[in-house]
Amino acid sequence: MRVVFFIAIAVWFVSCTSPTDSTPDVPNSEDTHTLTVEARPSAIPADGVSHTTIFVEYRVNGEPVADSTRIILLNPMGVLNAGTIYTIAGVALDTLTADTVAGLGWLIAYADGIRDSAEIMFTENTP
Fold first, then answer.
1. Residues 90-103: pLDDT tens digits?
2. How much is the average pLDDT of 6-26?
3. N or C: which end of the chain has fewer CB within 10 A?
4. C-alpha 105: how far from its chain's center?
5. Which residues contact 108 (CB under 8 A, 6 or more apart)?
């Protein structure tokens, strides 16, 4: 009984710890990856209400990436609607709501080990 138990544990352990695919999910080094992020418009009032559209385009060898490719957005100022967006025909969109403090903010887009960034200006409110 003990031998069967130890064999069962050994089989379970090997099956749980042996990966079926040890190839990491990294872009092919021969492919040309292009990731572009823009804020449209790139300047908005720092009123906590105004919005800008975040436009991200991702291409491999000049062609749009597969639909549903994940793009992660990071920002220190303002509030993103989603933060994680997915491509359709190589394009993904999000909305950023203005911060309440005037200043220059950065937006970083990250996908498949590559990144791009854009500046967003939060301007002073003038009464």
1. 999 999 999 999 99
2. 43
3. C
4. 17
5. 37, 73, 74, 75, 115, 116, 117
